[in-house]
Amino acid sequence: METAVEPGNNEPLLFGFGFDEAGLHTPLTWDEVLEGGHAKYKRVWLHLDRQSAQAQGWLYRKSGLDRLTVQALLQEETRPRAARHGHGYLINLRGPNLNEGADVEDLVTLRMWAGEDLLITLRARPVRSATDVRKLVEDGEIDTSTGALVAGLADRLTDRMEIVLDDFDDEADRYEDELLDPKARIDRSVLPEFRRRVLQVRRHITPQREALNTLVRDGAQSGLFSDQDLLFLRESADRITRLTELVENIRERSSVLYEEAIQSSTEETNQRLFVLAILSAVFLPISFVTGLFGVNLGGIPGAGNPIAFITLVIALALSVAGTLALLRWQRWI
């Protein structure tokens, strides 16, 4: 999917739109926002860089939001949630990190203040789902109410999360096939790393399900979401529920895979030790006899007999055969 490109990290306003009574959009600039020019529109969507000092200053001084709301939007560590606050909602949602050179399981956060006439979204790292919805707005393919935009963002975040977890599921299938293939040798070190990645996603996807369920449950009473918006949110919540079950299944499979890999390695080690033990048992009598006859002392039996060496060799061979027969009789080999 083609997505719009966000400005550099130094820009406080990554993009913004003002919407008139008919829902038609007008792009906004940071200067217009600073001068209050966005106030003439019926509804506004501002997508800000959370790490920008200018954006933080505007939120505290000119956004019209109370200090508690701004602090919640700017705090460093968050988990997915949706909470009613006054006439709007504080919403934190997570999505896969699809930025170049990043790990997809290092989920990015999209924070939102959703009010009737103002939608503020913030991110520290680029969130492609936000630029997806931006393109829908520019192409006129989405309703521009606050509820519709929030539902669209949730839908796009869920779309991309599905792709990541389907890839995890395929990766688990591949590891299972390698373990079942006797000719394949799997690197055991990849399994703990795979499980860590799965757990990192699981840590946030479960509360994300609760956040979406909260919006579905309380959204109708707030008046912020239309029936169509709630339908999209309910669909996103159902898909997240399925993904939660999928990530639990992948987590359990990753644990079983690691245990099977350890068991397979242990069996290989035990088999090698068993072979060494058998060899030691076979050659122990030979080592004892040759050690005894190898001492440099007088009185060694057969020292002057020309057939003594051959006799000793035959006796040692019979000892080996007898030891092997005994081990076979005991079903050790």
How does the SSE layout of this entry go?
Blueprint: E1 13-19, E2 25-27, H1 30-34, E3 43-49, H2 53-61, H3 67-74, E4 81-85, E5 88-95, E6 108-114, E7 118-123, H4 128-138, H5 146-180, H6 190-222, H7 227-293, H8 308-329
Parallel strand pairs: 3-7
Antiparallel strand pairs: 1-2, 1-3, 4-5, 5-6, 6-7
Helix pairs in contact: 4-5, 5-7, 6-7, 7-8
What does this structure look like?
It is a multi-pass membrane protein. With 333 residues, the protein is of the alpha+beta class. The protein has two domains: 13-263, Beta Polymerase, domain 2; 274-329, Methane Monooxygenase Hydroxylase, Chain G, domain 1 (Up-down Bundle), CATH 1.20.58. Helix content is 57%, strand content 13%. It has eight helices and seven strands; from the N terminus they run E-E-H-E-H-H-E-E-E-E-H-H-H-H-H. It has helices at 30-34, 53-61, 67-74, 128-138, 146-180, 190-222, 227-293, 308-329, and strands spanning 13-19, 25-27, 43-49, 81-85, 88-95, 108-114, 118-123. Strands 2-1-3-7-6-5-4 form a seven-stranded mixed β-sheet, with helices on both faces. A hairpin with a 3-residue loop joins strand 6 (108-114) and strand 7 (118-123).
Number of helices: 8
Q: What is the third-level CATH name, the topology of the largest domain?
A: Beta Polymerase, domain 2
> What gap, in angstroms, lies between the N and C termini?
62 Å
**CATH class bucket of the largest domain:** Alpha Beta
Shape: rod-shaped
Low-confidence stretches: 1-5
GO molecular function, one term: cobalt ion binding
Transmembrane segments: 273-295, 307-327
Protein name: Zinc transporter ZntB
Keywords: Cell inner membrane, Cell membrane, Ion transport, Membrane, Transmembrane, Transmembrane helix, Transport, Zinc
